Amino acid sequence: MTTLLRVGEQTDILGESPLWHEIEQALYWVDIRRPALRRFDYASGRIDTWTLPDLVGCIALCDDGRLLVALTERIAAFDPATGSLATIATPPTHIPGHRFNDGRCDRQGRFWVGTMHNITRAPEGVLYRLDHRRQLAAMHSGVCIPNSLAWSPDGRTMYFADSLLYTIFAYDFDPISGGMSGKRVFATSQAPAFPDGSTVDAEGYLWNAEFNGWRVVRYAPDGRIDRIIEVPTHRPTCCAFGGPNLDILYITTASQQMSADELERQPLAGGLLAVDVGVCGLVESRFLDSRTASAE
User: Fold this and answer.
1) C-alpha to C-alpha distance for 211 and 79, rounded to whole angstroms
2) How far apart are CA 101 and CA 58, in angstroms?
3) What DSSP string runs through 63-98?
4) Residues linked to residue 63 through DSSP beta bridges, in sequence order
5) 56-101 pLDDT, tens digit each
6) Dihedral sign, CA of 52, 210, 235, 28?
């Protein structure tokens, strides 16, 4: 039986977007609803928290040591040392009630992030690509809840889910142009469980957290279920590999909209969980900012 351990004593409302920083030997993640950015130092066990000014959908590592944070209406660079935020990009069109959600950098250092209607979940969201020149391009529209952004180890297969379709899609990905094509069904889930955040391991298998599903699923490159990790709370949200050897799977979870009875029966809801799954992950790609490089 796989043993999951709780990391720290904090309880997230909606934990998301865990990222391992291999240089700092630390895990960063967000609580979308608090809203906050958190950092777990592996060696000391210390957890630091920064309060953010808006809802924060996701984060990414930057090549200059800062973090990209996708706030409600803008993408900004956050400096943990000073707490400063510098706007990098904003969507070309402001749509009331919308916010950024899931995001990740591709293997070439472009940042991909999706938007969604924060209340209605109407199919109005957009998947954007932020390139090295800070140009934000719309790549896909009509999205309800963007999730599961990930890339195969060679960067030639892209994964993306619209959670309310209960489907993870795979695309052929052009590493040079950053184009996506050949959309196909990769995996599906059974309602009420839907695909939330994902990560890819060194063997090219996709790990997906099933929100409302009590589990994290490992999918083979052909889409078959290879393994299931049962989670002691029904809303795991995302997962990432970390630890000195990249062999610990960290799982963020949610406690929002749970009754007092549910919270009593699920004491790990909102906790950051860790489990040894016997495989290793990949170093997280960083956002490559040509403007920063040219200024140095």
Assistant:
1) 31
2) 6
3) TTS-EEEE-SS-EEEEETTTTEEEEEE--SS--TTE
4) none
5) 999 999 999 999 999 999 999 999 999 999 999 999 887 889 999 9
6) negative
Which segments in the chain show pLDDT lower than 50? 1, 293-296
Query: Of residues 196, 201, 222, 247, which has the active-site annotation?
Result: 196
- Please state, in angstroms and rounded to a whole number, the distance separating the CA atoms of residues 168 and 183: 10
**Element spanning 174, H or E:** strand 167-174
Residues in contact with 260: Cβ distance below 8 Å, sequence separation at least 6, in sequence order: none
Residue 58 belongs to domain with CATH number: 2.120.10.30
In the numeric block, which tokens belong to residue 156? Answer: 């030639």
Q: pTM score > 0.90 for this model?
A: yes
- Contact between 199 and 221 under an 8 Å Cβ cutoff? The reply is no
How far apart are the C-alpha atoms of 211 and 183, rounded to whole Å? 23
Q: How many CB atoms lie within 10 A of CB 210?
A: 24
Q: Mind listing the pLDDT tens digit for each residue in 187-201?
A: 999 999 999 999 999
Q: Is 196 a catalytic residue?
A: yes
Contact between residue 244 and residue 256 where contact means Cβ atoms under 8 Å apart? no
The domain tally of the chain equals 1
- Domain assignment of residue 32, given as a range: 5-295
The answer to whether the bond into 236 is cis (omega within 30° of 0) is no
Q: Two tokens at 160?
A: 């993306």
Dmax over Cα atoms in the chain, in whole Å? 55
What is the rounded distance in angstroms from the CA atom of residue 209 to the CA atom of residue 193? Answer: 10
